[in-house]
Specification:
Elements lengths: L8 E3 L5 H19 L4 H18 L2 E3 L1
Antiparallel strand pairs: 1-2
Helix pairs in contact: 1-2
């Protein structure tokens, strides 16, 4: 399966670059587990929404 695109997330709490990478990796894995085996545009849409929610919860402004 191809890797879904990432979102644009900007730190709002002074997160270091290392923390940003860690948060993005963890949120991406969580989003993939949440989406499961959905296919096509539905998969991508759910993945992006889940990833955005996770990053926002960790203190990022998400686009």
């Amino acid at each position: 399966m191809a890797q879904p695109p990432d979102i644009e997330a900007h730190p709002t709490r002074g997160q270091s670059l290392a923390q940003q990478h860690k948060d993005n990796d963890e949120c991406s894995r969580w989003a993939m587990r949440t989406v499961g085996h959905a296919v096509g545009e539905t998969h991508q849409s759910i993945y992006m929404q889940t990833l955005a929610a996770c990053m926002a919860g960790r203190g990022y402004a998400v686009k």
